[in-house]
Amino acid sequence: VFQQELDTKHDKYERLVKISRDVTIESKRTIFLLHRVTSVPEAEDILNEAETKLDAVRQKIGQIAEELRGEDIFQFHRAFTPGIQEYVEAVSFLHYIRHRSLISLEEINARLVFMRTEKGLAEAQPAGSQVLTFQVTPSDYLLGVADLTGELMRMCISSVGNGDIDTPFQLSQFLRQIHDGFSYIGNTGPYEVSKKLHTLRQSLGKVEDACYTLRVRGSEIPKHMLADVFSSRTTLMDTEEGVV
């Protein structure tokens, strides 16, 4: 009996790992798609396409919710946490591009309500269907937001390369607020936060350096050369951090 119970648990764990891998891949593709908004004149089409991709990702998360029905979520948390973090990163990136603000944990969880129907999972709520919910844990939310800062730093580089000198200053202020928030958490949060805080500081430093370059030397450097200057300064910063 114990052998059968363990085999069932291991099989479920492996299924969750595979679904999480699919969630990670599709979320990364959505992030790559969203980076194109800095180089196109009309971004709405890209944002709508990204929303469609995220709807497909949510269906995958619905499969995770179905697997976890009646189970202790923390027994299987390690199986699906990478995918959920990547999803939080993608959905918060889309939310920032649309609204220039940080999406809340409640807003993310509000979209993760599924209905069990005969054909599978759907986000509609027909009468008599069984409700399935998936709750993103606060730690997964924090780690996903920490990863978001790296994407915002790349967005800053792309904006500079396209001659957009307003976005870097907006990103700098936003990243500084996120950094302050993580500083308040300190050692009380998940242990992975302290590791990601170092990367967050690097991203903030690079964005602030870009703003410094734009403010001090922006008038004397042609717009099409700003990205090259910024890239060389970023490389120099990376080597100096390696020495330290």
Q: Could you write a compact summary of the structure shown?
A:
This protein is mainly alpha-helical and 244 residues long. The chain is built from eight helices and three strands; from the N terminus they run ααααβββαααα. The protein is elongated, with a radius of gyration of 21 Å.
Q: Give the end-to-end Cα distance, rounded to a whole number of Å.
A: 56 Å
Number of helices: 8
Mean pLDDT: 84
Number of strands: 3
Low-confidence runs of at least 5 consecutive residues: 239-244
Give helix % range: over 70%
H/E topology pattern: HHHHEEEHHHH
General form: elongated
Report the structural category: mainly alpha
Main sheet: strands, sense, barrel: 3 strands, antiparallel
Strand order of the largest sheet: 2-1-3
Q: Report strand %.
A: under 5%
What is the alpha-carbon Rg in Å? Answer: 21 Å
Oligomer: single chain
